[in-house]
């Protein structure tokens, strides 16, 4: 009897220890520097986040480095296929940068890979590169007003090998190829649309090299829904030379449009994504929720969620969109400039910004 009681007590203690080993979302831990977090191991990340803000993101801007860091989260993570290999979000793009930055689809990524490598070396960063890339991406996005606060899970092991080539979608891929590649990595068409919303805070350097820093929408410093609106406006011009691989006509000078973004919302090419794309045009909250959920999945490709610790509370809380922002048509355009793509619902009616047509400024 006494032995049974002792056994029960030991088992109960073991159970408590097991439960304690699992990250608890509602637990609070006070770090030595005063930050509160859900798990003690997250404490080391608060100073790192401060350094990222001051030394990589120019004091907390939604600028080029923040945009590039978001792109890098994708280019590291999508390097995974159940049949072709690759470790997903493992930092291989940094550790094996000689191999991976040479992939065609990684054009222009070397700048941020170099910047993050230098940052890690000069700041004596001890976390693994797979964690660092996703942390930097989540912190960078938090600088963009209107963004959701992304999840950050901590504890990815170092990469075992470089990712194989040809796993990263290209802007000149067909929509079928793009959706098949994402599906292979575990994403459905709706999640692809949500992820492509990242092009709301984005610009291209390599599509038309005569006009580096040309944004995909008119508000590249805001995590708003303008990309879903402006990609659906009738294309009338090339902002630079034209005739570049992966580029189609855009609606306004100074703005560039990827062929892939255009195909995703074009009905005759792809009825699977056109209505999802349109649904975000005037739905900031829906876009935030869908983007956060899809990023949550993307950031841990190749890992078991249960092997990681939730350190999301180290990510700064993004500012909301300014009161002056909101879904709109470009100045001097009309509703008829929208190319209806979704077969089952009309595009939302939006007002144009006042004033004459203007060129979009580079990032
Ligand atoms: C079909 C899938 C995708 C294609 C074909 C694609 C293609 C591209 C291209 C060609 C650029 C311009 C690169 C340059 O010339 O500098 C770009 C930029 C960017 N992409 Fe994507 N992308 C895709 C999906 C994604 C996803 C899933 C994310 C993130 C979740 C993402 C985030 C970004 C960002 C933030 C930039 C801007 C980088 C900067 O401003 O420097 N992209 N993308």
UniProtKB/TrEMBL annotation:
UniProt entry keywords in alphabetical sequence: Calcium, Disulfide bond, Glycoprotein, Heme, Hydrogen peroxide, Iron, Metal-binding, Oxidoreductase, Peroxidase, Secreted, Signal
Classification via InterPro entries: Ccp1-like, Haem_peroxidase, Haem_peroxidase_sf, Ligninase, Ligninase_C, Peroxidases_AS, Peroxidases_heam-ligand_BS
GO CC aspect terms: extracellular region
SUPFAM superfamilies documented for this protein: Heme-dependent peroxidases (SSF48113)
GO biological-process terms attached to the record: cellular response to oxidative stress; hydrogen peroxide catabolic process; response to reactive oxygen species
Record: residues binding Ca(2+) 2: 200, 217, 219, 224
Domain Plant heme peroxidase family profile residues, every copy: 108-346
Binding-site residues for Ca(2+) 1, renumbered to this chain: 76, 88, 90, 92
GO MF annotation, one: metal ion binding
Pfam families in UniProt: peroxidase, Peroxidase_ext
Disulfide-bonded cysteines: 31-43, 42-311, 62-144, 275-342
EC code(s) of this entry: 1.11.1.-
Active site: 75
Compartments where found: Secreted
Entry keyword annotation includes Glycoprotein: yes
Site positions (Transition state stabilizer): 71
Entry note: cofactor: Binds 2 calcium ions per subunit.
Cofactor(s) listed: Ca(2+); heme b
Signal sequence region: 1-21
Family as reported in the entry's similarity comment: Belongs to the peroxidase family. Ligninase subfamily.
Name the record gives this protein: Peroxidase
Source lineage: Eukaryota, Fungi, Dikarya, Basidiomycota, Agaricomycotina
